[in-house]
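fyi for ur records
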Amino acid sequence: MLHHQQNAACLYAKAKEADGQYREAATYYESARDYESVIRLLLHNLNSPEEAVRIVRETKSVEGAKMVAK
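which gave:
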């Protein structure tokens, strides 16, 4: 994905999150490769810790691992 497309996806994800549309926000964050935001939503808004762990393992996100550990 091109850089400007990632920025657009991230902006759209933030708008979806602000509207409480967390699943859609997570999808757009993932397409923007903002995995920490995906993991945060999965843990705090979508009650999907298993999916958060899967993404941490796939992306090897250190910050994501810290969020899951809490």
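The chain has one domain: 3-69. thats all i got for now
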